[in-house]
Design a protein that fits this description.
By secondary structure, this protein is mainly α. The chain has one domain (8-121). The chain contains 1 helix and 2 strands; from the N terminus they run H-E-E. Strands 1-2 form a two-stranded antiparallel ribbon.
Length: 122
């Protein structure tokens, strides 16, 4: 009598192969979201720094607070930014900012996925 179906060994081998593939793929998928947030953070910091430089060039000094980039002193000019972009790591539109030097950094704890640079050093 001929039976059709899989043996227990065949089923266990298939399950083991699937488990190995999942162990390889899942961390990469989770890392992709983290890398995307880090890329957004870097782009947001670049935008803020660019607008700080433009402000300093026009005003002769850096603003007292980042929020000053979203307001104008006279009605004929546009603000440098519509709003301060959110830090996608912390989920807040708050950054470490030094009005004397114009330096701005993330307040996020931790390091980047790709090279281990602390978020606060970006």
């Amino acid at each position: 009598m001929k039976r059709s179906g899989f043996t227990l060994i065949e089923v266990l081998v298939v399950i083991a192969v699937i488990a190995i593939l999942a162990a390889l793929i899942v961390p990469r998928l989770l890392g992709a979201g983290r890398q995307a947030r880090e890329s957004i953070l870097k782009a947001n910091l670049k935008t803020i720094r660019s607008m700080l430089d433009a402000y300093e060039l026009q005003q002769g000094k850096y603003p007292k607070a980042l929020a000053d980039l979203t307001t104008t002193k006279n009605k004929s000019s546009q603000p440098y930014l519509d709003e301060i972009p959110m830090d996608p790591i912390t989920g807040l539109a708050e950054y470490d900012y030094d009005p004397e030097t114009g330096e701005v950094h993330s307040k996020a704890e931790g390091v980047t996925y790709d090279d281990g640079t602390p978020y606060q050093d970006l």
